[in-house]
Amino acid sequence: MTIVNYADKIIRELEQAADHLPAAETESLAKRILAGGSVFVAGAGRSGLMTRAFAMRLMHMGIPAYVVGETSTPGLEEGDTLLIGSGSGETKSLLPMAEKAKSLGGTLVAITINPESTLGVLSDITVKLPGVVKDKADGTSQSIQPMGSLFEQMLLIFFDALILRLMEMKGQSSGRMFGRHANLE
């Protein structure tokens, strides 16, 4: 099979998965973000990279957003939101920070394949995305892609779609957002 064939299969998978994005939970999340407070994001591995991309777009919108673990990240305060991307919802390094955020009066959001996971159950808002948990991707799953690739790609697509919804809700344009783009590159 060629790279073009694989790319076509991946795009078809993403199209099918996009049909299952949850509208109600997404709207609740958008309203929560616009309600105020800072947004903190966390995730491990490739899921973490997708949450970092989301934090950047929130910053471009003028919404205070931080990546957990960075040296310039302030402390979470009551009324802030911690958003965690975790396919399994069981990533051991993420669960203690979820519990800490709740104890500080933060709103906890889980973006996961498994809403019944420890993280999903603990969260105030749980958004279920299509995908395959990486250690369950054994070649018999609904994805041709390795490990958690489908979830990670859907996470980025979901975040970009959420940004578009937030832009619509705030009456924000791409041009206005570009004014907050890094200028020391």
TrEMBL record:
Domain SIS residues, every copy: 29-172
Pfam families, sorted: SIS
Keywords (A to Z) from UniProt: Isomerase
Entry superkingdom: Bacteria
CDD domains from the UniProt entry: SIS_PHI (cd05005)
InterPro entries listed in its UniProt record: PHI/rmpB, SIS_dom, SIS_dom_sf
Keyword Isomerase on entry: yes
A GO molecular-function descriptor: carbohydrate derivative binding
GO biological process, one term: carbohydrate derivative metabolic process
Similarity comment: family membership: Belongs to the SIS family. PHI subfamily.
Name assigned to this protein: 6-phospho-3-hexuloisomerase
